[in-house]
Amino acid sequence: MSTPRAQGLPTTSGATSFKTGAVLWAGGMFGVLCVLPYVVRLQRDTLQAAIEQTGLSLPMLLALSVAQAAVVLAVAVAIGAWASRRVGLGAPLLDALLQGGTLPPGTKRVLAQAVGLGVACGGGIIALELFVFVPLDPDGIGVLQERAGHPPVWQGLLASFYGGIAEELQLRLFLLSLLALGLRGVGRLAGANQRVLLPVWAFWGANVIAAVLFGLGHLPATAALIPITSVVVVRAVVLNGTAALAFGWLFRRNGIETAMVAHFVADVVLLVIAPLILVEGSLP
To answer: Angle at CA 5, nearest 5°, toward 2 and 11?
Structure first.
């Protein structure tokens, strides 16, 4: 499949870019709304404390949270779309649909690749959790698993849309693109080839930094359930960061849409399929 990155130049008009950004923002907001039931379940104690402290009702707190997310996503999409196109990344599938109403040749293949990578990431995370990190720290990670529990299947499915869409917009489209642009700029100041749109070293440097930050970003939610130890930190970085590296690779290779698909599928494995197996003992 031919993408703007593969050709080395952005190919979309200003109008299409705006439409693409609007669609991506709307998708991110859909993910924000979808994750609310899961958040209420997982952070019920934190939310109750906030209600008592502020005097606001739960619907009001959630409405404020959604409004904040809308602003954050708008900024992330606007800056991310600008930065990603500067380094030859972007949303080629969505651009193609908005420009001509058809998907590029090879779309089924790259989407199937994204699904497969998502399944592998989800399965790998489960295996590392069960056979590495829980045995390493049964009093920490084991307790975390018990306290977090398993979300109802419908909540896990809805939450997967948040990870697949909103997190990818913030971590890949925004953060990774901006880091890649910054690293490329540093390289050019140091005398690197000015014509290379996105040097391999700049991409992977940005991908690694974004992946580590993505892993560390899960620690606040973990801290609400168990004390943070060195094992907990390593777990957060390894489990989430390894998957993030794969999603970043897909972003560069075939566009943000394939990273979204892989992330969504990985979350479905973790939040839907795994609970069905672990809690009920079998798949339907």
So the answer is: 75
